[in-house]
Automatic annotation (TrEMBL):
Domain Transcription regulator PadR N-terminal, first and last residues per copy: 36-85
SUPFAM superfamilies for the chain: Winged helix' DNA-binding domain
PANTHER family: PADR-FAMILY TRANSCRIPTIONAL REGULATOR (PTHR33169), TRANSCRIPTIONAL REGULATOR RV3488 (PTHR33169:SF14)
Protein name: PadR family transcriptional regulator
Naturally occurring in which organism (per UniProt): Martelella lutilitoris
Length: 102
């Protein structure tokens, strides 16, 4: 797993959206809505974060026919991702409380 995640403005927006509810899982559509990022920008970021071990993802259970739609892929912050975010917060936030994404 790589620790070399470029914290671009878009990546910070994705992490901020996930950190609003760090124990929940989110579909790509939910993250897109929260960040305003289009899928062409969002999914490469999610893939990089997952490859680096910051996120875990899993497909929704169920048959698409029974669901009446394609299955969703859900993303969740990993323990490693939470650790990295805490480290980033301590580096960028004067009090080390919460992430400050200017």
């Amino acid at each position: 797993m790589s620790d070399d995640i470029r914290l671009t403005k878009q990546t910070r927006r994705v992490l901020s959206a996930i950190l609003e509810r760090p124990f929940d899982r989110f579909s790509g559509a939910e993250i897109s809505k929260a960040t305003g990022l289009a899928s062409g920008s969002l999914y490469p970021i999610l893939m990089r974060l997952e490859r680096a071990g910051w996120l875990h993802s899993e497909w929704e259970a169920g048959d698409p026919k029974a669901l009446g739609r394609p299955r969703r892929r859900y993303y969740k912050l990993s323990a490693d991702g939470a650790r990295h975010c805490r480290q980033i917060a301590s580096e960028f936030s004067p009090a080390g409380e919460g992430l400050v994404w200017a």
